[in-house]
Amino acid sequence: MPLTLGELIADPELDIRVEYWNRDADPVVTGAHVSELLRPGEWLAGGEILMTVGVQLPITPDDCAAYVRDVKEGGAVVLALGLGHRLPHQSVPPLLIEAALAEDLPLLGIPEEVPFISITNAVYAAIVLDERHALERLVELHKSLTFSAASGGGLEGIVATWTAATGVGVVVTDPLGVQIVASDPSEGTHPEEETLRELAAVLAPKGVRGALKTTIDGQPVEVQPVGTTRLRAFAMLIGNTGPLIPVATTALISILALELERRWLTSEPDRQQRARDFQRILIAESESEAEALVRAAGLTGAEFRCIAVDPGDGSPTDLVADLSLTIRGGLIRHTEGGPVEAIVASDADIEEDLRRFAPASAAGIGSLMTPGTLASSRAQAMAALVTSRTLGRPVAYRRGFTQDWLTNATDLEMAQTFSDAVLAPLTQADPSGALVATVEAWLTANCQIDPAAERLRVHRHTVRARLRKVEQLIGQPLDQLDTRVELWLALTAKGVHRLPNARPMDS
Fold first, then answer.
1. Can you give the residue ranges of the Purine catabolism PurC-like domain (predicted)?
2. Judging by DSSP bridges, how do beta strands 78-82 and 107-110 pair with one another?
3. Rounded distance, CA 382 to CA 339, Å?
4. How many of the other CB atoms lie within 10 Å of CB of 378?
5. Which residue in 172, 173, 19 sits closest to 89, CA to CA?
6. For residues 507 and 493, what is the distance between their CA atoms, to the nearest angstrom?
7. pTM across the whole model
8. Contact (CB, 8 A) for 14 and 122
9. How far apart are CA 288 and CA 395, in angstroms?
């Protein structure tokens, strides 16, 4: 414990005389200073015992009161006057005692056989001993936190160990301010959920540099970011902290970051499975199959949308981690060389999440669709991503987006030239338009054969034969997204909105 005035006075080797002290308070002495200035207050840091032999000690009541007031306002917790036959004062002047009483500042008399350096040594020896004990406690705390993490206690064990050792409550939240784990509420009232979200909203844009100290409901609260290179969580410390708590806090934050990274690494198999689920939903052959896969993946609701986010110069793994924390319940995947993609529920505030956690990333947002038509939402997201890279902000696809874009952002003659160039192999090989109609029906039917055949009123084998012919004519496989998007844009530019009554082409 720090040295108090009572402990200093009780030291038998010092023989200190108490001239005035209101013993209802026992101030902590954090330093020792000697000064013969008339106004020493500006040279004080606070918490000291100020020692003087009173060479210039004021002799009038007003001046003496002003001197003591300056010492008190400077932060000194004790005033000590050196006494002796060879010194200016053999006893403490009554005016000085009266001034100390008026300011409620403890006043001591130091006999000449007790040099000031003895008191200074006693003060700093106590400080060194206290710091040693604090460091020992810090080492023990670090060992306990490390053991808790290594023994599988997880975030819950780390938080409980911290609070038991320090008495400081802690709440760990995700970057959105949603609570992940918290210490026992009996250690202090935890902030309300809304307050946690508000604090996170302020700090999240600053990433791992976001930290603050504040007061909530009369309690001091310190918020620290958790993460190595990317923000993973916030740790909110609740309660009064000691002088070495900042060092202890660093240990806590480091171990929390390691535990969160461990959780992320150990969840890799689950992420890989969810990426496979993502693809299975896109290629499902029926609405019922796609809906079953969506429910099995834990997504709820009737409609969902796809998003595509460009990692840019950053790490796709970090972006996946950010979106995994942000988009709760979503399916997320990343394929080599492509964007980070996600299937999210209708109630997700995607634009806000992207603004906060991927502010420099281009992003395309598809329309809400049923599980069986999510491939179309993904195509929309990929097309919107292209526009987003140009505009420098997330772009949400909407119905009629392509037509508006081709009309307003592209020269109509250029758009028609593009359409003719893409579709020329099909129109030249089949002037009846059956190949073009089949491609549009197939794309509109989420690239599924049976619905396209129903719409064309032909057999599904006919649709398959025509699509094989299309691949031969354009020289590109239809299972590539770029090919499908190019054909889709060409059809839109041509203004093919209704299927012609095409007769089956001879196969």
1. 22-127
2. parallel
3. 9
4. 24
5. 19
6. 28
7. 0.54
8. yes
9. 30
